[in-house]
Amino acid sequence: MTRKFFVGGNWKMNGDKKSLGELIQTMNGASVDPNVEVVCGAPSIYLDFVRSKLDAKFGVAAQNCYKVPKGAFTGEISPAMIKDCGINWVILGHSERRHVFGESDELRCQKTAHALESGLGVIACIGEKLDEREGGITEKVVFAQTKVIADNVKDWSKVVLAYEPVWAIGTGKTASPQQAQEVHEKLREWLKTNVSEAVANSVRIIYGGSVTGGTCKELASQKDVDGFLVGGASLKPEFVDIINAKA
Questions:
Q1: CA 191 – CA 189 distance, rounded (Å)
Q2: Per the record, a Pfam family (predicted)?
Q3: Residue 110: left if φ>0, alpha if ψ -120 to 50, beta else—which one?
Q4: Is 114 noted as a catalytic residue in this protein?
Q5: Which of 37, 94, 96, 103 is catalytic?
Q6: Domain residue spans in the chain?
C-alpha cells in the first residue's frame, strides 16, 4: 500500500497579506514533488485570500472550526463556512488548542465528527507532553487520544493523523527519527487492532514538532512517517525543501 506523502504547513497566528503574499509567490514558483500532497493552514481571516492566490495544486486548511453549521457562537467558524471559501481541510485538536485554550476530548470528538460529516478532510493532532514521555506513558497517552478520534470517524480516507510530541513544538527540540518511527509504528499497530488492517495500512501518520529543512530528510526516510505538519518553517522558503524531502 503506497501512502501519498502529505506535508501540512501550520501558519498559526502569523503573517499578513504582504508576507503571506510573498510566501505564496515563492510556493507557486517553486519546483515541488508532484507525488506530495501539500496543505497550508492559514489564519481564518486570510483563508479566502490564500485560496485565491495559492496555486490550485496546493490545498488550504482552516486551523480550527466549531461543531455545528451556524448559530450564536461569537468568534467561531463552521465547516460550512470553510467549504464556502473553497477550503477542503481543517486542523483539529492541535496541542495549542488543547493546552492553551483548554479544549476537551469531548469537544474534539464533536468537532471531528461534524467536520467529517460536512465533507472536510481532518488533520487530527495527537501527542504527549514532556512529563508524560519522561514518565514512560507516551503510548498510553497517544492511544487514548487516537481512540477519541477513531470513535468519530466513519471514512478514514478523509483523515490524516498528526503525531506532534508537545515537547518538540516550537522548542527547537525534534524527536529523533527513531523516536518518531517508534510511535508511528505503534500507532499503526493500534489502528490495526482497534479499527482495521486496511485503515492501518492506508491512513497517513505525519510527524510534527520543529521540522526543518535540516531534519526533514532523515525523518521522511522512516517507514511509518508519511509526511509532516510543519510550524515555523512553513512560513519560510525552506518549506519547499521540506515538501521535497523524499525527492
A1: 5
A2: TIM
A3: alpha
A4: no
A5: 94
A6: 5-244
Which of the four pLDDT bands, split at 50, 70 and 90, describes residue 171? confident
For 43-64, what is each residue's pLDDT tens digit? 999 999 999 999 999 999 999 9
DSSP annotation string for the chain: -PPPEEEEEE--S---HHHHHHHHHHHHHS---TTEEEEEE--GGGHHHHHHHS-TTSEEEES---SSSSSS-TT---HHHHHHTT--EEEES-HHHHHTS---HHHHHHHHHHHHHTT-EEEEEE---HHHHHTT-HHHHHHHHHHHHHTT-S-GGGEEEEE--GGGSSSS----HHHHHHHHHHHHHHHHHHT-HHHHHHSEEEEESS--TTTHHHHHTSTT--EEEESGGGGSTTHHHHHTTT-
Tell the CATH topology of 5-244: TIM Barrel (3.20.20)
pTM above 0.90, yes or no: yes
d(CA 43, CA 63): 7
Q: Which three cell numbers stand for residue 140?
A: 498510553
| Catalytic residue check, 134 | no
Which member of 103, 114, 164, 184 is catalytic?
Answer: 164
Residue 92 and residue 121 in contact, taking contact as beta carbons nearer than 8 Å: no
- What does the pLDDT look like over 109-128, one tens digit per residue? 999 999 999 999 999 999 99
Band (pLDDT 50/70/90 cuts) for residue 1 is low
Q: Is the pLDDT of residue 141 over 90?
A: yes
pLDDT of residue 9: 98
